[in-house]
Write a structure and sequence with these properties.
Helix content is about 50%, strand content about 10%. With about 525 residues, it is α+β, with helices and mostly antiparallel strands. It folds into 3 domains: about 190 residues; about 90 residues, 2-Layer Sandwich (Phosphorylase Kinase, domain 1), CATH 3.30.200; about 230 residues, Orthogonal Bundle (Transferase(Phosphotransferase), domain 1), CATH 1.10.510.10. The strands form 3 sheets. Strands 1-2-3-4-6-5 form a 6-stranded antiparallel sheet. A hairpin with a 2-residue loop joins strand 1 and strand 2. Helix 3 runs parallel beside helix 5 and helix 9 runs antiparallel to helix 16. The relative contact order is 0.11.
Length: about 525
């Protein structure tokens, strides 16, 4: 399974719609309506201020006859609409009704302003109607459904002749010549038809994109992140309404290995992850390949942070909490080892510490992207993998090009345990080769020298055994390590009340548990050694 990336932060709204599917039509329309009303408010304010500095000689013929309240009225309706789009008291449907009212109100004000000067026999057409502009811009900017646009545009267009009739009836303005009526209102009538056509086109385009964004039984709801390998989306099952994280991997990622081999490996890794049943292993719901050759798979959403973030926030952990987390990590890896899989890239960024129901500090092991099946018939698919992993957590035998085994994962667990207890890496060097050679040749600094918390002797000895240079000196596999960890009984000292207290304290300051669930989804195969070497 391609490497599971560290968590992606909650998405920022994207007014262009790229971060939400066209199915969320009303939400997108409300967002655009807010933008349109904000622009209308700004333009009205500037126009009002400029009108105060008009030269007396400009338009003195009949300029004084125009209503003085036009710009204040535009400012008022724009501000009211903007506030309505921001309130939580109205549903998106009701907000769109406000949008229809806003368009009609603006067009009514435009009509009053346009027809305020009486028409005479000698008059020529007074430029293009601003009502036409308002109708067409409204249809293009605010993506309403065609039926709603038809109603809104018709009501807005009626404002043009009705305001003229109002001036004739209530202000005693002369009736314009008959041939002027056609030129006054024909463009407004045409704009209604054009607005409906634009709305139908945009709505059809949105539906096409929605169908394109349907992955199997899952519908894409909101983009959570984008990286070099693809995109992660919040997805929802058609019938179960179950939220999930759906990862799209672009086909060019696998161009070097060829489509056939890439597909075979993708399916093998997806099936391998699906076979792991430990509750502490990330759960795979579904996977597949689209007609365009885009790989996708669907995984559970988790609420919390990866261990890398936890350690950066907490520093060195108390031995009881470290043992509590380590037992869960070993539980996941024991399941993988019993199934014949080696993880090969265990590190804090791939260990997720979350809230699961009422349980805090619940561990999920995420990264089975570099998983290796030890069965002979899979050898051909893993031969080209080469040197893989993250330098800070690589076992000496893999650094030297030897074959990875279960004890290699045990070494990585030892590195993670050392990091949790000491608050630093086992070895720290300026370059990747320097770190790798320290793993091969040097002994770690004893934990009792570095740890801010007293570490029980049995736990310290167990961690140092995991960091032994030769595999046969370490616990044989994750299951053996789990059994030895349980003998220390240190995990029993870390209570749920302590865990809940820590999370409540840090969520209050960081917003960790108050936002929408953070999505965890898979990345493409990552050769961390090569990436760091290149950077060095």
């Amino acid at each position: 399974m391609p490497t599971v990336a560290r968590q992606l932060m909650a998405p920022e709204p994207n007014p262009s719609g790229s971060a939400s599917t066209p199915a969320d039509w009303n939400t997108m329309a409300v967002r655009r309506l807010g933008l349109a009303s904000a622009i209308g408010l700004a333009v009205s304010l500037v126009s009002f201020l400029l009108s105060l500095f008009r030269q007396p000689s400009v338009g003195e013929l009949r300029g004084h006859e125009r209503p003085a309240w036009v710009f204040p009225a535009l400012i008022a309706v724009s501000l009211a609409t903007l506030l309505a789009t921001r309130t939580k008291r109205l549903s998106d449907i009701r907000k769109m009704d406000v949008g229809v009212a806003y368009l009609v109100a603006v067009c009514a004000i435009f009509g009053v302003f346009r027809h305020a000067l009486p028409y005479r026999e000698s008059d020529v057409l007074r430029g293009f109607s601003p009502i036409v502009t308002a109708i067409l811009v409204g249809a293009m900017v605010v993506p309403m459904r065609p039926a709603r646009i038809a109603v809104a545009s018709t009501l807005a267009a009626l404002c043009d002749p009705l305001t003229l009739l109002g001036w004739i009836v209530f202000a005693g303005h002369p009736v314009p010549p008959w041939n002027l009526w056609l030129w006054l209102f024909a463009p407004t009538v045409v704009s209604v038809g054009l607005a409906v056509i634009v709305a139908r086109f945009l709505y059809s385009l949105g539906k096409s994109l929605e169908r394109a964004q349907q992955m199997g039984r899952y519908r894409l709801k909101q983009m959570l992140g984008r990286g070099a390998m693809g995109e992660v989306w919040l997805a929802e099952h058609d019938t179960l309404a179950r939220p999930a994280a759906l990862k799209l991997i672009r086909p060019e990622v696998f161009q070097q290995s060829g489509r056939g081999q890439a597909l075979a490996r993708f399916e093998r890794e997806a099936q391998a992850t699906a076979r792991l049943t430990s509750p502490h292993t990330i759960e795979l719901y579904d996977y597949g390949v689209t007609e365009e050759g885009v790989f996708f798979y669907v995984m559970e959403l988790l609420e919390g942070r990866d261990l890398e973030h936890v350690l950066s926030e907490a520093g060195a952990l108390p031995p009881s909490r470290a043992a509590y987390l380590l037992e869960q990590i070993c539980h996941s890896l024991r399941d993988a080892h019993e199934a014949g899989f080696i993880h090969r890239d265990l590190k804090p960024a791939n260990i997720y510490v979350c809230r699961k129901g009422a349980d805090f500090d619940f561990v999920k092991v995420l990264d089975f992207g570099l998983v290796k099946d030890l069965s002979p018939d899979e050898a051909a698919l893993t031969q080209a993998d080469g040197l893989m992993g993250t330098p800070d957590y690589m076992a000496p035998e893999t650094v030297m090009g030897g074959k990875a085994g279960f004890a290699s994962d045990v070494y990585a667990i030892g590195c993670v345990a050392y990091r949790m207890l000491a608050g630093r890496q086992v070895f720290e060097g300026r370059t990747v080769p320097a770190v790798l050679m320290q793993h091969v040749r040097e002994e770690p600094t004893p934990l009792d020298v570095l740890c801010p918390h007293p570490v029980p002797k049995d736990l310290e000895q167990l961690v140092m055994r995991c960091l032994a240079k030769t595999p046969d000196q370490r616990p044989a596999n994750a299951g053996a390590l789990l059994a030895e960890l349980r003998k220390t009984r240190l995990a029993d000292a870390w209570t749920q009340s302590e865990a809940a207290s820590w999370w409540e304290k840090h969520s209050a300051s960081k917003g960790w548990l108050e936002t929408a669930p953070t999505a965890v989804a898979a990345e493409s195969p990552v050769r961390s050694v090569r990436a760091r070497t290149s950077a060095a």
